[in-house]
Amino acid sequence: QKNSFGLIGLAVMGQNLVLNVADHGFSVSVYNRTAERTHEFMSGEAKNKKITATYSPKEFVASLERPRIIQIMVKAGGAVDAVIAELKPWLDEGDIIIDGGNSYFSDTERRTKELESNKLRYIGMGVSGGEEGARFGPSLMPGGTKEAYALIEPLMSAIAAKAPEDGLPCVAYIGHGGAGHYVKMVHNGIEYADMQLIAESYALLKSTINPAPEEFHEIFTEWNNGELSSFLIEITAFIFTKSDDKTGRPLLEMILDKAGQKGTGKWTSQNAIDIGAPVPTITAAVDARILSSMKKERQEASKILSGPKNNYADERGKIIAAVRDALYASKICSYAQGMNLLKRASEEYGYNMDLGEIASIWRAGCIIRAKLLDDITRAYRSRSDLPNLLLDAGFKHAVQSRQASWRFAVKTAFELGIPAAALSASLAYFDAYRSGFLPANLIQAQRDYFGAHTFERIDTSGVFHANWKEK
Ligand code: 6PG
Fold it and tell me: What is the active site of this protein (predicted)?
């Protein structure tokens, strides 16, 4: 009796996915580089489930039904290539390898070509939702050939999260080659932006009205009941309630203000620049993490450089409402940037992505799941070629009606010297996007002045160069 699914890499995500798959009635074979981890898993959570341990790639492959469906859950980079190389000698034509890690999409493109030349099938699949998601329903973003997807679809639909709105599974075919990993990368870029916007909102509230942790919990809980309802706001509300075992103080206050990152946010910004799609809020979030990591240098600078002093403590209600509005409007702008990056990438790489479908599979299971995604799904379903989310009637109204308080929140941050790079990047994006005229005429003049780079005119077509030094 052979098993219907195989998974390699029993770290936290791998283990939870295996348990999820087994709970849905599929028999699973597992293999891990170190046998000890496999033993632990088998005698722990995997006990009494339809899970078979194997201890070599050969044994692992032999234990699976054909065409084999093998998912690898190892660290992005060289480890993925190493696992593929180990597996390859034992595989047969038509077998499917799924990479469920956060691989860079161009690595996935390369691996797809290599494996397809060996008559094997390759699926690069974004998996979001952390441990909980993997165990009880992740959002899945598979890219590869349609026929390979058809073979894994029943299993993936079974284990994926289901959207609360319509019960649909949060998995859909994304596009060929690296399309799935591309979408996961952009998901993570949006995740970085969401997190930074929330962090700036927290800083803004702290520096103005300085809520106690319980009050912070109440504010975020209330926000989570409205248009900001999302996983990240929900967990933020909980974070304020946790106290430190060691000191009894709020744990948040004991955490060093140095943000880590594994690279997916950075890749989003890098690739967006490469293909010419502006994602200023995402980039601001990546920069903010980098700046935060310069803790020592900031501490030194804080002794030398000083900022303004202002007082907003008496405007409690107004500040809380303004920050909430600024957060929501800024979030819309960062999703607009992310969706437009996907649109641009789809053209650039021929992925033929369905933006409404992508928004719909982010509605549950993943880190950026949010009420807002119901509206984004609707916006693209009613108009798949929407040039920008801000042009959808609902989003237009949402942003315009919050404009005054959004500006007030950003202005307050500037007045108080609170870094609000992501909130203000979103606002500047909105202002630039709605400008029929930008000062780029001056940039063109400068380029032509020093380098004869030429310019176009507003009144005649053609390419012009001026002799600038001649008065
Ligand atoms: C998810 C997350 C996850 C990502 C972490 C860490 O969708 O479940 O995006 O895949 O690896 O959030 O990212 P950083 O370490 O770069 O913050």
Answer: 184 (proton acceptor), 191 (proton donor)
